[in-house]
């Protein structure tokens, strides 16, 4: 029996709020954060709906007392990670603490600025804009800010990245290698990703409608989400009351196509099934599923098919919160882990915005309204990425 | 718990695939100082219809994984874990350039799709239809070490399984131009093999693709075991020495009694000041071999060291190009100490099995 | 029409990196997707880019792809329709 891994704190920043309380308010009030792009100059500015964090780079740098040259993803990551650490009220230095973060593009926003000048003249372009390009560098900077040195790692498995970070953190604590892990991820909107997804023709020109019959693509988003994972020993020694623990996780590969999910959702099905096996739960014991639910024709059909296979015509309450935040790529696992934990903490479920008609092939109607006073004991959070990387996390309510 | 290496696939600036002959008996010199990989004919490993779309780093990764599985006599592994410091640089550069030049219009999707770091591991999974665990680590010079750590966690839970674990990185014309501006490379053009014969600032850029077929249990294919992997991030000199000493103590290693230390000295005289102190104080009179004049300096260079160490133990042959003085005893344990600039230091212990 | 199809074959080979093929290896009516040349959805997106770059035709709905890209002949017919329109 694996040693239990508790959640002692959380932090989040996204299009619907700059902290956990703000985000919860928005979710409760069905107040989405999608709006036309304003963050930078692009052919898509003012037109493409995205989920921007409502703080510009200068404002973020000032709030966090960081240099203005800091990549946006790093600032978002530090913002959320600091909230999580503060929320936990633990002195990280007392314990064997690690940071496991995730990001898909790291410091790419600054690299883009560099490239514009560099391509005209290879001697031009400020080096400070490219020194923090790599994904690993983002994690270094977050670790430096939190004072963590013992263990750092960065995962990049596209959209399942930060879910995998949480799973690895849990695994390392259960194996006795670390006492505390700050786990999650961050990603910022960049021209690179916006144009990349546009070239794949999977962006919706309107506000996305996950799991709806008329869905026609995703809206990109940005943000960061981190949770503080602790061992039994830390929980007892610090006398922390926790409301949830990590009860299961799984990582599988769809092995079907580089960007599309298999029609039968075999990778997603396997991930959900294996996470359930690990948590020793039956599918019926899951009270809420936070869907990957990007709003693309392909993902929602594939994920929906997998859920039908697992549940038949009676799935639990489920919703995609990407209708609120947009698809935050590498950060989505971390951000949606925080949302999932909120449902346990507040005994509620969040709605799936802009849903009107079920996808004919799967006939699933997601949660339509914010609902509270519900017995939420076990919650599943799905994250499925390019390259067939499928991950599922299960969080369960603590007894204490 | 030990990880058993049952097969290795190696694409590097040396001839590390095909009929290798006597280990590193004919080391390749790079007078222009850029250590680019010696690449095989990929049509041997990959079908033309898949090959057409693949970038160089994907071809290197797929070929290395195929060679590893072949040596281990495995068709489909249970999991694939890849470490890469900078991911698919060529495609990242292509998409960025086109985005600027074409003013965000009519952009080809292929370079974007292949720019994500996890493309290497997922391409391998796709070709094998491997639906098992699939992970990609990108923590600079810990990318390969994190991958080994993850494999040991997975295999301690499922010792009968087989995992492919890799370290893959490339350089491109663009990446070299940019890195050069940071002044980290040797300025004078000369012989790469003579890197350690001249004291100068700067190191040499390198690249490589390595995959190791690992199991939690010893099999008849097992060549060598990876016993422990340890990482030290931004340590002070004292913390590093202390950490290494504790490591040696916990794993029954004596300061003057390691059969061979493979040291990732970079050739840069500034960073080597600390490296030499560590080698002297932590490893005393144990024989020390070097390897970055053969593979260059890059995020996953420790994978080259693991390949080298494994083959040394397997063949009981220490190539003169890595160590001047011959070793007269058998080589049963090899400790790889890999410093990467100032902030990254790792230890990997290999043992004969 | 013949000239357009000849050009298209060269452009398709170039855009999709079909180095092992020569233009004469691709039949005018040969299916491009699934069977025949065995192209996939990523190739379809690349062909959409080709239409824009070479012929200034912008396809906004990728679902129209399968019909238009059925064969070199169907692509040529589509281009001619849109260029005379």
Describe the protein in words.
- The complex is a heterotrimer of chains A (400), B (353) and C (85).
- By secondary structure, chain A is α/β, with parallel strands linked by helices.
- Chain A has helices at 20-28, 57-64, 72-88, 108-118, 135-146, 161-174, 191-199, 232-238, 266-279, 297-311, 322-325, 332-346; strands at 5-13, 35-36, 49-50, 97-102, 151-155, 180-187, 223-231, 244-253, 288-290, 317-319, 348-349, 371-372, 378-384, 389-397.
- In chain A, 65% of the residues are buried.
- Chain B is α/β, with parallel strands linked by helices.
- In chain B, strand 7 (260-263), helix 9 and strand 8 form a beta-alpha-beta unit.
- In chain B, helix 2 packs across helix 5 and helix 8 (237-250) runs parallel beside helix 9 (269-283).
- The model of chain B has no long low-confidence stretch (mean pLDDT 96).
- Chain C is mostly helical.
- Helices cover 54% and strands 0% of the residues of chain C.
- Chain C is globular and about 30 Å long.
- The longest helix of chain C is centred in the middle third of the chain and has 15 residues, at 41-55.
- Chains in contact: A-B, A-C, B-C.
- The A-C interface holds A 199-201, 257-260 and C 40-42, 45, 48-49, 62.
Query: What would you call the shape of chain B?
Result: globular
Average predicted confidence as pLDDT of chain A: 97
Estimate the global geometry of chain A from the Cα principal axes: globular
**Strands of the biggest beta sheet of chain A: in what spatial order?**
5-4-6-7-1-8-14-13-9-10
SSE arrangement of chain B, N to C: EHHEHHHEHEHEEHEHEHHEE
Q: What does the main sheet of chain B amount to?
A: 10 strands, mixed
Task: Identify the strand order in the major beta sheet of chain B.
Answer: 3-2-4-5-1-6-10-9-7-8
The DSSP helix count of chain A reads: 12
Low-confidence spans of chain A: pLDDT under 50, at least 5 residues? none
Mean pLDDT of chain B: 96
Rg from Cα of chain B: 20 Å
Q: What amount of the residues of chain B lies in strands?
A: 15-25%
Secondary structural class of chain B: alpha/beta
Percent helix of chain A, as a range, is: 25-40%
Order of helices and strands of chain A: EHEEHHEHHEHEHEHEHEHEHHEEEE
- Rg from alpha-carbon coordinates of chain A: 20 Å
Summarize the structure.
The complex is a heterotrimer of chains A (400), B (353) and C (85). Chain A has 400 residues and is α/β, with parallel strands linked by helices.
